[in-house]
Every structure is written in structure tokens, then in C-alpha cells.
Amino acid sequence: MSAARTGPILIYGAGAVGQFVGGTLALAGQAVTLLGRPGLCAALAEAPLLLAWEQPPEGEAAAREVSVA
Predict the structure, then answer these.
(1) Of 21, 31, 32, 46, whose CB neighbour count within 10 A is largest?
(2) Are 66 and 51 in contact (CB under 8 A)?
(3) d(CA 4, CA 36)
(4) For strand 9-12 and strand 32-35, is the pairing parallel, antiparallel, or unpaired?
(5) CA–CA separation, 51 vs 27, rounded Å?
């Protein structure tokens, strides 16, 4: 499945669900910005977002690093 290219995406509310949705969109090639609390912004500035799946898609790693703004 491939996503159609759209403009940049802003995820307002970068809690656990927002990070997962934003990270998944970023893995699909979308330009994603997460809007979160200062502590989250500081953590993401130091290390990339890590997405982990309990049951990863076949042929995929159980965890992947994702770059988001």
C-alpha cells in the first residue's frame, strides 16, 4: 500500500497515539510534525522516535526508528 503524497501533516497532541500515527505516516513517506509538550520535544530532539510492533508485518523489524519534526 502506498500513500498519496500530500502537504505536510501536523499531529496536534503527540501522546502515545499521536506518536504512533505520526510515526506510521512518516514511515510511509509523509512529512510529519508532532506538536507536543516541551518534555517530548526535548526527548525527540535528542533521539529519534522508536516505533515497536508486538506483531510486525511480515518481513519487517519489530522496531524502527523514525525521524519526525
Answers:
(1) 32
(2) yes
(3) 26
(4) parallel
(5) 10
